[in-house]
Design goal:
This protein is an alpha/beta fold. The protein has 20 helices and 21 strands. The structure holds NADPH dihydro-nicotinamide-adenine-dinucleotide phosphate (NDP).
Length: 613
């Protein structure tokens, strides 16, 4: 879809700033409620019955905390490296992480399955479609666990409560809410970047007497239906409200719209909804792919999505589209005599984004029948300021009878009472309220993980990182020997394909553990110097880029619109030369055999084993 009218860039800029200013809140990230205390039930697992078991006091070689893709790919690589004793420890009732919890109707991944689903070649799975639904992703997580025998020794429905280093035995002690006090020689933590649900801090939220749940704990007993797409057949006589219009709500709303007697969508900021164009994958074509194809696809996507050149766009989607538009504009400007400067790139970015966002707003007009609703659904900010969404049924849902968009003009829901929701002085009576309010970002690592990690000399990770993350490669922390963190931050930070980062981290961790085991090391730890050099390198990058721009609406991508201090910058820092350069760098680092920056210690005399308590 293209627009033919010329764009008044100044007017657009003014509009973006006005809309952003409406949404800036002095409390920033503090506006959200943590699901604890009287809100703790929002975290209950609706998918399994808790089974009691005896506490464990044994020892494993590697404990992997978190059995989402971070833990699974690390476990798989460890298995491939010959490590026998691996224990997954997971709060959910199975593997899958985000895909265990997020079973809301319509859940699927916006990143193409050919690159999003990890270890496709290793597991022999062909994705059913370009973008696959959540049950297929969950099944793939289970497939990885089965292929690499990771269910053996795994503990589910088990929340780690404390992780502490015992220097006298060079082991980690892991305590859990099941009374376990286990030892592990190494610990890998993959507790996820978007893991802990948050609730909107709306006055009166605790008073609602109808049925309420967070999207990551979908209550199918109440709504009817199932994650595979069966209709939500118990909502036929219900007035349902949903708070939030982010990536989750966009996927769930079409299902609620067709099932509920009435649906009220409470919107603070509209998402940008680009085309999705899903299609099945042809098995004959899939069979022609040569071994090594997934690595090639991963690097092709990462290259194009970050402004690089490739002969072919293998994935060809909304992510690579916007990036190539910007890149091609920069090339055009340079061929017209402009210099290759940050200003040239910024101008090309703005022009491409203006064009893209005009298309996205025009698409709303084309699909949504009611002009006032269409107007309210238009996003007025740059596409990458918030998570871009891609959907071919979301906007159409507003044409269904019984569906009402309640736009709050950037202010959010006013208050909640026993029977419903108030917006602009009007009361909306509801039977059920769904919180599509997202997940904690920017809170401390320990708060999100749900436990504290205490390293050498009793130093807590929260204190060590009080002024921001300090790591080598996002993985190793000085003072925390034999501990590895699987994350995006201070590494590639490729957010358009999270699992690519996780596979690289898992592969690196397995290489380090294999080397330590092969050389008889008892401890492996990053030196203070190597950590410092890396922190300086990743903090030398370009800051917030477009996210610091006043055209950007507040959200979790930009610290809710508040200026970023050193802590926030470190917590979202990335390798300055970009994701592809990082992937090449880390591949060289781990295959060279030098493991620069790490110290492997095997000189510890056989320590006196103390009881794990
Ligand atoms: P988000 O944080 O993206 O969205 C939360 C929503 O709640 C926003 O619309 C927010 O409005 C709204 N909200 C918060 N407080 C209030 C309030 N007081 N009144 C009214 N509305 C309020 O969470 P999601 O669960 O949608 O998505 C989280 C992330 O998970 C995504 O960004 C994405 O990374 C991932 N994801 C990916 C999917 C995919 O691949 N398709 C699908 C689902 C999730 P406002 O925008 O104004 O802050």
């Amino acid at each position: 879809m293209t627009t033919t009218e010329p764009i008044d860039r100044e007017a657009l800029r003014r509009k973006y700033r006005e809309e952003r200013d409406k949404r800036l809140r002095p409390e920033g990230n503090e506006q959200y409620i943590e699901p604890k205390g009287r809100y703790a039930h929002f975290l209950d697992d609706p998918y399994v019955e808790r089974v009691e078991r005896e506490p464990l006091t044994d020892e494993v070689t590697v404990a992997v905390i978190g059995a989402g893709f971070a833990g699974l790919v690390t476990g798989a690589r460890l298995r491939q490296a010959g490590i026998e004793s691996i224990r997954l420890i997971e709060g959910g009732g199975d593997v899958g992480g985000a895909w265990y919890w997020n079973r809301y109707p319509g859940a699927m991944c916006d990143t193409a399955a050919m690159i999003y689903l990890p270890l496709l070649e290793e597991t022999g799975h062909m994705p059913s479609a370009k973008y696959v639904p959540a049950p297929e992703i969950f099944a793939h997580a289970r497939r990885i666990a089965t292929t690499f025998d990771l269910y053996r020794d795994a503990l589910f429905s088990t929340q780690v409560t404390e992780l502490s280093w015992d220097d006298t035995i060079s082991r980690w002690i892991i305590r859990t809410d099941r009374g376990d006090v286990m030892r592990a020689k190494y610990v890998s933590m993959g507790t996820g970047p978007l893991h802990r649900p948050k609730l909107p801090g709306i006055p009166g939220i605790e008073t609602f007497a109808g049925h309420a749940f967070h999207t990551s704990r979908w209550d199918y007993d109440y709504t009817g239906g199932d994650p595979a797409g069966a209709p939500l057949d118990r909502l036929g006589d219900k007035r349902v409200g949903i708070i939030g219009t982010g990536a989750t709500a966009v996927q769930a709303i079409p299902h609620l719209a067709s099932a509920a007697a009435e649906l009220f969508v409470f919107q603070r900021t509209p998402s940008s909804i680009d085309v999705r164009n899903n299609h099945p994958i042809d098995p004959d074509w899939f069979a022609t792919l040569e071994p090594g194809w997934q690595r090639e696809w991963l690097l092709n996507f990462a290259t194009l999505q970050t402004g690089g050149f490739a002969e072919e766009d293998l994935v060809k989607d909304g992510w690579t589209d916007i990036a190539q538009r910007i890149r091609d504009r920069v090339v055009e400007e340079i061929s017209n005599g402009a210099e290759f400067t940050p200003e040239t790139i910024a101008a090309a970015f703005e022009a491409s984004d203006d064009e893209k966002m005009c298309e996205i707003r025009a698409r709303v007009d084309q699909i949504v029948a009611d002009p006032a609703t269409a107007e309210a659904l238009k996003p007025w900010y740059r596409q990458l300021c918030k998570r871009p969404c891609f959907h071919d049924e979301y906007l159409q849902a507003y044409n269904e009878p019984g569906v009402q968009l309640v736009d709050t003009d950037g202010k959010g829901v006013e208050r909640i009472d026993e029977t419903g929701v108030w917006v602009a002085g009007r009361h909306y009576e509801l039977d059920c309220l769904v919180f599509a309010s997202g997940f904690e970002v920017g809170t401390s690592y320990s708060r999100r993980a749900g436990y504290e990690t205490v390293g050498r000399d009793g130093v807590a990770l929260s204190d060590r990182w009080a002024e921001g993350m300090h790591t080598l490669h996002g993985i190793h922390v000085h003072g925390f020997p034999n501990l590895f963190i699987v994350s995006l931050t201070q590494a590639a930070n490729l957010i358009s394909n999270v699992t690519h980062n996780l596979v690289e981290a898992g592969t690196t961790i397995a290489a380090v553990v294999a080397h330590a085991e092969a050389t008889g090391a008892e401890e492996v730890e990053v030196t203070a110097e190597a950590e410092q050099v890396w922190v300086e390198l990743v903090s030398s990058g370009g800051g917030m880029g477009i996210l610091g721009n006043p055209d950007c609406t507040p959200g979790y991508y930009n610290n809710e619109g508040k200026p970023m201090g050193r802590r926030e910058r470190l917590n979202s820092a990335a390798y300055p030369a970009g994701p592809v350069a990082y992937f090449h760098y880390i591949d060289g680092w781990r295959t060279s055999g030098d493991f620069d920056g790490l110290e492997f210690r095997s000189d510890r005399t056989e320590p006196a084993r103390s009881p794990a308590s």
